[in-house]
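Sequence in, structure out. Go.
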Amino acid sequence: MANAAQVKALIRSHADGDDARFYAIAMQVAAQAARSGHGKFATELRELVDQVKARAKGAPVLTRGPKPIPLAQPRGELAGLLTIGYPKTRVSDMALTPPLRARLDRVLTEQRERERLREHGFSPVRKLLLVGPPGTGKTMTAAALAGELGLPLFSIQLDGLITKYMGETAAKLRLVFDAIQSMRGVYFFDEFDALGGERGGKNDVGEIRRVLNSFLQFLEQDDSDSLVLGATNHVGLLDRALFRRFDAVLEYTLPTPELATHVMQGRLSLLDTRSIDWATVAKDAEGLSHAEIAMACEHAAKNAILDHTTSVRGAELASALHDRRSHHNT
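Output:
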C-alpha cells in the first residue's frame, strides 16, 4: 500500500497539475502493493490509471495554478542570447532555511499584488541578486519563481552575449533589456560575475568596464514588470555599485544537517528508507551542497532499483555521499 511519502507526492503532483508524475507514482504504488501480496488492489489500480489516461487523451488539458503567458520564440540575434522554458518547479520543492523561504514568499506576494502596490505609489521587489556556493539552489530559485508566477524563464547565454569586439556586448545587452521591457518573464543572468566584475581590478580592461557601466545603466532604468535575477558563486568579485541596483540580495549557504535530511528524504520519498539512520547520513552529508546530496541520493536509488529492490540501505547512501565528497575535494 502507499506510504505517507507517496501519498504526499501524489497530492503535490495533483496540485501542480503534473499528470505524468501523478500516474508514475500511482503505478509505483501498484507495483509495491503487488510485491506485498495485494494483487487484486494492484491490478485494479493499474486498470484505473490506464482508464484515466485513455480519457485524458480526448479531453481538454486542464491547468492548475497560474496560467503561463504565451510567448513566441525570440528571433534573429536575440535567439542566440536567450533560452526559454516554462518550469513547473515550486518553492515548496526546495530545501530552504526559514529566513530565505520567508524572503522568497515575500517576493511572490509583492509580485502577485503588484498592481495594488503601484496604486499606492510603490514598486514590487523584482531585481534580485543571488549569492552563494555552487549547488545551493540559486538556479532552482529562478525556476521556482517562474513556476509560481506562471512566467517564462529566460536564461541569458553569456557566451553569446560577451564578445571581444568593442561596443558589441553593450549592444547585445540593450537587446536583452528591450526584451525584459516588452516580454514579462523571469530573466536569469547566471555566473553574473562575468558581467559584474569589479571595476579597477587587476584584470580590468576598458571594454569590460564599459560593459559593466552599460549594464548598471540598463538595470537602473529598467521599470518593467519582469523579474531580473543575477546569480554568482563569487560575490567578492562583484563591483560594489551593483548591490545598490538590486532590490534584494539573497544569500545561499550549504545545507544544515536538518536541511540535508530534508533533501535526502525528498529525493528518496518513493523508495523504502526505513533502514536509514538519518542522523548518521546527515553527518556524512556535511559540507556537501544541495545538488551534491541530491546526486548521491539518485546514485543510491538507482543502485537499489538495479538490485531489484525498492529499499535504500543506509550504507549505500553513505557510500554515495562519500563518493560525492571525494569528487568535491578533487
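Check: Residues 39-57 form the longest helix (19 residues). The chain has a mean pLDDT of 82.
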